[in-house]
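ARCHIVE CARD
Drawer: 12
Card no.: 0347
Subject: one protein chain, sequence and derived structure
Cross-reference: see card 0346
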Amino acid sequence: MMKIICKIILAVFLLGLSYFFGQVWKENVHVIDPEENKNLPIYCVDTKEKAVALTFDVAWGNEDMDEILDILKKEKVKATFFLTGEWVSKFPEDTKKIAREGHEIGNHGDNHKHMTSLSREEQKKEIRDLHEKVRLLTGKDMELFRPPYGDYDDTVITTARENGYEPIQWSVDSLDWKEYGREAMITQTVDNKNLTEGAILLLHTGTLYTKEALPEILHRIKEKGYHFVLVSQLIYKSDFYIDFSGKQYKKSR
């Protein structure tokens, strides 16, 4: 009788243990579901190619634009520039020059507003008004949208996609806008743990150190074996999903 009781106790204990570890596994292991996270922007891309995308947010002055474009030309690097409407209106010739030199122009909002504070119609206007400005100046239709300040929610992402745009964030932040200095910017970018295949790098124009640090950043990233592509060349245009971290994957066929 005692042996039977012991066996029952052991069985109950093992069952409880199994349930406990099953719950722990469920809570800590995330299985990627292609149907999840439909309203996330793209932070980086899953790719075996040693390619990264260099992006600039452009909302301030144009005092360093010529020098940045000259550096990119010398280094044979193409970049994606996310422009605001105010900047485009102030500097139309610079806008045309960016496009003329083979760089990509992305939409950064007509008035650089926090998109989550706007209604859906106001969000649409922020996107479409700038779209028309750039199209009239360059003859090109933009297809990439970066919410100002990185500020988004489900509505912002849905509105962007409904208007023909793919929302883009970043995985490597240079922190150049904090103006810690040239060396700090280089280290923050080149030694960043997220600098891997498919990374999207964030820099800004109109800062103190971006133009000073840019040549070294490009050299050192190239030395790591990476090459630079436009964001539109890096991302998947169809049959993709985005995981909980914002990484874009190609769907398996």
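Annotation on reverse: Residues 2-34 have pLDDT under 50 and may be disordered. The longest helix spans residues 2-28.
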